[in-house]
Amino acid sequence: MRSDEITAAAAGTWTLGDLTVNRMGFGSMRLTANPNRELAITVLRRAVELGVNHIDTAAFYFSPGGILDVGSGQTRYATELIRDALTPYPSDLVITTKVGPGFADDGTFSMASTEAQLRAQVQENLRRLRRDHLDVVNLRIVKRPVPDSIAERFGALVKMRDEGLIRHLGLSNVRVDHLDEAQQIAPVVCVQNGYAIDTNRGDDGLLKICGERGVAFVPFFAIAGPQREAGPAESHSDPVQEIARARGVTPQQVRLAWTLHQGRHVLAIPGTGNPAHLAENIAAGALSLSPTELAQLA
Ligand SMILES: NC(=O)c1ccc[n+]([C@@H]2O[C@H](COP(=O)([O-])OP(=O)(O)OC[C@H]3O[C@@H](n4cnc5c(N)ncnc54)[C@H](OP(=O)(O)O)[C@@H]3O)[C@@H](O)[C@H]2O)c1
């Protein structure tokens, strides 16, 4: 099968609460960094054509001023690109967003901590996406200084869930004790942490616990790894390169395939503004790694 004929269904599905998604999804953070708005729209539509039904976003993904400020002079919000590209939304599309971090239009960073601040962020997501409810909202915390308790903020989101503004809740950038605390309050459908074959492997335990509890583990920076916001990993370990060469795929595809092999509950949300990379990433969902290859990568 040609790689551009492989769909996001190739890696199977997972259920977030009552919402079934293909394990291969799409991350929208990078879309606002490209001054070419039409290209971003094309990538989003192509992603859906290729079977993507899980898109990750945030109201604070915008340029200039937000998370990837390229100073284009024209404000673009990932949430609005998603709306403009995909409305009327396909009935099976699950949009996951996050609240916590916020940027003023001039790029000043702040962290929402009160119910009123979190509510304003939920409402901003609703408005920009033009939805009457949000499918999944992750409470995103910062690790430094790491808060001991997330109960108050998570409780505020539970209230909004009970009001019908949010369907399901998740957490982002958290430790096991944060997950424990939140699960005492309400169901958690996903944990979204930075994690890759060569990054944050201290979260191996958290990933396993999520699997045991039926919570999706959704790594960000699976391709970028230690380069984080700066872009794709510059170098790859010898096993990644050897397997890529032997299988006729790219090192980025091996990184994504490795991610999906960490458990049925692990979902991928690779981010790209490049249609060719999009097709490659989705094709990585069909790349089955043998036990020998997984041992090499370990
Ligand atoms: N919860 C959080 O705190 C948090 C933090 C960061 C990100 N996220 C979410 O996670 C998603 C994924 O993170 P990310 O987009 O930053 O990183 P990523 O998916 O690990 O990597 C994206 C980078 O790799 C490049 N790339 C993608 N596919 C490629 C391919 N096939 N070949 C070569 N290069 C490729 C992209 O550039 P091109 O555009 O040139 O392809 C981009 O620079 C984000 O979009 C966002 O939705 C969440």
TrEMBL record:
Alphabetized GO MF terms: oxidoreductase activity
Domain of life the protein comes from: Bacteria
NADP-dependent oxidoreductase domain ranges (all copies): 23-297
CDD domains assigned: AKR_AKR13B1
Keywords, alphabetical: Oxidoreductase
Keyword Oxidoreductase: yes
InterPro entries xrefs: AKR (IPR020471), Aldo-Keto_reductase (IPR050791), NAD(P)_OxRdtase_dom_sf (IPR036812), NADP_OxRdtase_dom (IPR023210)
Any one Gene Ontology cellular component term annotated for this protein: cytoplasm
Residue runs in coiled coils: none
SUPFAM superfamilies the record matches: NAD(P)-linked oxidoreductase
Gene3D superfamilies according to UniProt: NADP-dependent oxidoreductase domain
Pfam families in UniProt: Aldo_ket_red (PF00248)
Name the record gives this protein: Oxidoreductase
Organism: Rhizocola hellebori
